[in-house]
Amino acid sequence: MKERFDLIVLGAGSAARDAAGKAKREHDANVAIVERERWGGSCPNVACRPTKAYLTAAELVHDVNTEAANRGIAVSRAEIDLSRLRTWKDSIRRDQASWVEVLGEQYEAVSGEAEFVDRETVRVDGRELSAERILIATGGRTAVPPIPGLADVDWLDHISALELERVPESLLVVGAGPVGLEFAQIFARFGSHVTIVNHGTQIAARADTEAAVELMAALADEGIEVILTSGGIEQFTRNGTLIEAAITGGRVLTVSHVLLAGGRVANIEALGLDAIGVDASTRGIVVDEHQRTNVDGIWAAGDAAVGPLLTPTAQYQARIAVDDMFGNERAADYSILPTAIFTDPELGSVGLTEAEARAGGFDLEVVKHPLAYVTRAQFSTSKRGLYKIVFDRATRKVLGVHVVSRGASDIVGTLALAMRLGLTVDDMAMVHHVYPSYSEGLKAAAEQASAARGQTLRV
Ligand SMILES: Cc1cc2nc3c(=O)[nH]c(=O)nc-3n(C[C@H](O)[C@H](O)[C@H](O)COP(=O)(O)OP(=O)(O)OC[C@H]3O[C@@H](n4cnc5c(N)ncnc54)[C@H](O)[C@@H]3O)c2cc1C
């Protein structure tokens, strides 16, 4: 017999939990939440939080080894005990039993893999659940590129890399997006010899090019080599315990470990979408601005849907979908989306890159300020960094801000609101600032725009 609900959410990650919570809170909905593998989903278990936990350890190791002596702190060389770090990482996350208990108190928590029977019904481990509204929030996973020889390599992804007990001697990171860059720095700071191979002309493909170049220089200073290629890795060959990677152009790297971070694919194969006619590709389920799929009564949100692959956007999409389901239509808007890569320095961005603004036809100006001139940065030996503002020449409205510095994620996060309220570059120049802070560099950049008009001079 079918069990009937007001809403079924497939997956128990960030998007699914947000949707279930909102539907219950605001509409007193009777919700079923279905999870096949990892209650809580990726972000708290195997993605955002554990990687940031590792990054804090990497930063500490790095600071002790590069800064302590300058400050008159006598310590021996810091070294990571990966096994103990892993135990700490696991100790600060909610365990699976606790997730099931918390979610089970509010919803019908169903363990198992969901597959559509028809557009209102899913089958999970022999049970049939049905609802007028179904949200697909099944997330994504690491894409495995079709490189010859890869099948013979015990490659790592972000999940298995976080379970390693020993630091790899040498690590080849495939892909220079946020995941690849963060792991490259983590393991380089833990003592691995790290090389990144990236298809394309810059690291962090979505970032402003000058910001990406600055971050790449900071990583190079730490001994991380980045190989940018028009191709990529053409062949993997096992050589005893080592792995050889032949790169377009003729170079061959020999490493002990390979980490795949070249892209993501949506978890949709098991859902049986073809049977109910939901449009999708490996990039995800096709949705409109209300998160509706092409099939009535079925919405998709988070990494399972085409769109940004971030936790806050997964939650945002889930809320838009629930609003839409219950008659409060609103449209997704990503025009002012703050993002960050949590390397050290961080690369934080909000709004348009210079290239995007040019492609969008804006008559724009750009002002920049180097991190090295910011007082706060002078307390650290690393001076690589940049503040860049892209603004409209006529209206002076800020179109995009790109920051490479420690704390960049916080800087761009708070700027998003000001940009939403119509921030101009002159507002940025005139505003009071905290001294000495990393955000000060933005005011210094903005002052150049105002000074060029004879408005403000820096004192
Ligand atoms: C290494 C890494 C670091 C990241 N760091 C950040 C960060 O710092 N900040 C940020 O904003 N974003 C970050 N992200 C992205 C972020 O983790 C994702 O965007 C977010 O977790 C997506 O949430 P979701 O709910 O769409 O999917 P998920 O959290 O992945 O949840 C989907 C769930 O669905 C389940 N599922 C799949 N198929 C089925 C099925 N057929 N039946 C039942 N259940 C199913 C899965 O087991 C999974 O638990 C990071 C990603 C990675 C890989």
- Form type: globular
For the sheet with most strands, the description reads: 7 strands, mixed
CATH class of the largest domain: Alpha Beta
Bound molecules: flavin-adenine dinucleotide
| Rg on CA atoms, Å | 24 Å
Strand share of the residues?
Answer: 25-35%
Mean pLDDT: 96
Describe this structure in words.
The chain is an alpha/beta fold and 459 residues long. The protein contains 14 helices and 23 strands. It has three domains: 2-40 and 94-142 and 265-325, FAD/NAD(P)-binding domain, CATH 3.50.50; 150-262, FAD/NAD(P)-binding domain (3-Layer(bba) Sandwich); 339-452, FAD/NAD-linked reductase, C-terminal dimerisation domain (Enolase-like, domain 1). Strands 1, 2, 3, 4, 5, 6 and 18 form a seven-stranded mixed β-sheet that branches. The protein has a five-stranded antiparallel β-sheet with strand order 19-20-23-22-21, with helices on both faces. Strands 10-9-8-14 form a four-stranded parallel β-sheet, with helices on one face. Helix 3 crosses helix 7. The chain starts with a strand and ends in a 7-residue tail after the last helix. Residues 10-16, 34-38, 41-43, 47-48, 51, 113-114, 137-139, 158, 179, 267, 270-271, 302-304, 309-312, 314, 342 line the site of flavin-adenine dinucleotide (FAD).
